[in-house]
Design goal:
9 strands, three-stranded antiparallel beta sheet, 2 helices, about 120 residues, five-stranded mixed β-barrel
Length: about 120
């Protein structure tokens, strides 16, 4: 089972899920508490229920898949990266890249696309 690791020593296990265009929502990404950037993300069906009900959590409790690249947080992986989120009640779920340790985890669709691009490049003259 995939797991996120945080600088405070906590972890978050999650199950991978497919991208469903009906489950697209916006999240806010911060870096060390700086101004945020809104980014599109795909949630699981359970994540959408939490999002749409304005759930308020106590830390990183949800996971989504980025659907576009955050412009302000290079070199963070863009679309296809699983990211943990905090549910913030009536405001968008958020994550702070400064809280993370380790590498971002990529969804199956992104891994497949990167493999296809690598295979294509290996056949170029």
């Amino acid at each position: 089972m995939p797991q996120f690791k945080f600088k405070d020593g906590k972890t978050l296990d999650f199950e991978e899920f497919p991208i469903n265009d009906k489950n697209l929502r916006k999240i806010n990404i911060y870096c060390d508490g700086t101004d945020c950037e809104g980014v599109w993300a795909a949630f699981s069906d359970a994540g959408v229920k939490d999002y749409d009900s304005d759930r308020r959590g106590t830390g990183y409790e949800g996971v989504c898949i980025l659907q576009n690249a955050p412009l302000n947080f290079y070199p963070m992986n863009g679309w296809g990266a699983y990211v943990p989120v905090k549910f913030n009640g009536g405001t968008r779920p958020s994550m702070d890249v400064a809280d993370m340790t380790g590498e971002m985890l990529l969804c199956e669709e992104r891994i497949k696309q990167e493999a296809e691009l690598a295979a294509k490049k290996s056949h170029e003259p």
